[in-house]
Amino acid sequence: MSTRSNYIHQGVISESRNKKRLPVRHAFSRPLRFMPIYYVLFTIYCALNLLKFTSFQELSWMNIGLLYLLIRIVSTLVLGVRILVQRFQAKQYVLCLVVGSCVLASTFISGSWNILLLLLFLIAGREVDLRKIAICVLCTNVAVIFLTVICANNGIIKKTTFIAGNGMPERQAFGFTHPNLFGLAVVTACCAYAVLQYRKFGWKDLLIYGVAFYACYELAYSRTSAISILLIVFLSLFVTIDKHGRWDKLILVLGSLAFLGLSLFSIWLMVYFKPSISWMSNLNSMMTGRLDLMHHYFETYGVHMFGFDFSKMQENYRGYYDTFICDNAFAHVVLESGIVVAALLFLAYEYVLLRGLIVYGELTPELFGLIIFAFVAFSESGAFWVCVNFCLVALAEPFFSLYSKLPNNNK
């Protein structure tokens, strides 16, 4: 496989050789100087995004909420400046203006920064190295998980035990605000590790995934996270056995169909879910009420063109759901960010998978990660956050491919 597959924006690798240097002589205009800033911002953003889902947020002296707001503001300003000093073609400026306007409208209306920061990290990360991003995500998640578990077990932060009833065992959150959020952190770390170990699955990896599976299934009792880890193991083992990529096209076909099918199925369930239908009720129970919740938000608040601000809602659904909890990422984006932004995101995701199939016919690490998260998105709301699904940086390809045709790696 070409080493260029380590970079997501392959169509612009040689651009700096063919273009004159920009007259601006500061770090923002020089890729080699800016990228360390990019990785630092990304790492801090990942860490604080994860910490706000732990009991550390209850420690007033840490001010996690304020720090998280500050890193979002700083990231927006720094990445925004980086984008402004880059040189694009006219059609790229038009696309950037159209998509940016839609995302800004959604951000102001919904109050959610997730898609805005995703867009900024995409366009500003023209020369981003996926392996370095994966290392940032892996190290951040592992560090926060260990820190949180140790502090919770030693009484430094609150350790909560959840009793779900209905014959379900006690669920340990290990210092996180919910066991499923602990599971999401573990799954994110496993995905990052899987990308770093792409086509190199071994006994050591099986041991690591086994520990992760045990923590999610037996301790946190997060069944969806445990299933996601099994999926990672299966796909990692399969692509390692198929080291020469004979089945790459088939995997890309199935991955593209899976994303399309799961997105449409999720939205259909959000609209038409009925607990009186046995298979829907059983699926809802298996997913710990996720279908019922997303249908409730659809029925109560509807869907809007540019999203809805759920921080202003006042309710107590079923006695304990007083905040917006929609653990299906497809429905989450539609409800929170709106129809327009969701459509743009889903189309870009599907486009990148299909382009990998049609143009390259090769399964690269970033496409491998996108396929994994296509399944994770069915049960985890964070699957479209760039700090969780770091492979989303590949979605910038539709933008940068306007500059020139991507090279065919099969040549």
UniProtKB/TrEMBL annotation:
<feature type="transmembrane region" description="Helical">
    <location>
        <begin position="250"/>
        <end position="273"/>
    </location>
</feature>
<keyword id="KW-1133">Transmembrane helix</keyword>
<feature type="transmembrane region" description="Helical">
    <location>
        <begin position="93"/>
        <end position="124"/>
    </location>
</feature>
<keyword id="KW-0472">Membrane</keyword>
<feature type="transmembrane region" description="Helical">
    <location>
        <begin position="130"/>
        <end position="152"/>
    </location>
</feature>
<feature type="transmembrane region" description="Helical">
    <location>
        <begin position="173"/>
        <end position="196"/>
    </location>
</feature>
<keyword id="KW-0812">Transmembrane</keyword>
<feature type="transmembrane region" description="Helical">
    <location>
        <begin position="329"/>
        <end position="349"/>
    </location>
</feature>
<feature type="transmembrane region" description="Helical">
    <location>
        <begin position="383"/>
        <end position="403"/>
    </location>
</feature>
<feature type="transmembrane region" description="Helical">
    <location>
        <begin position="61"/>
        <end position="81"/>
    </location>
</feature>
<feature type="transmembrane region" description="Helical">
    <location>
        <begin position="356"/>
        <end position="377"/>
    </location>
</feature>
<protein>
    <submittedName>
        <fullName>Polysaccharide polymerase</fullName>
    </submittedName>
</protein>
<feature type="transmembrane region" description="Helical">
    <location>
        <begin position="37"/>
        <end position="55"/>
    </location>
</feature>
<feature type="transmembrane region" description="Helical">
    <location>
        <begin position="208"/>
        <end position="238"/>
    </location>
</feature>
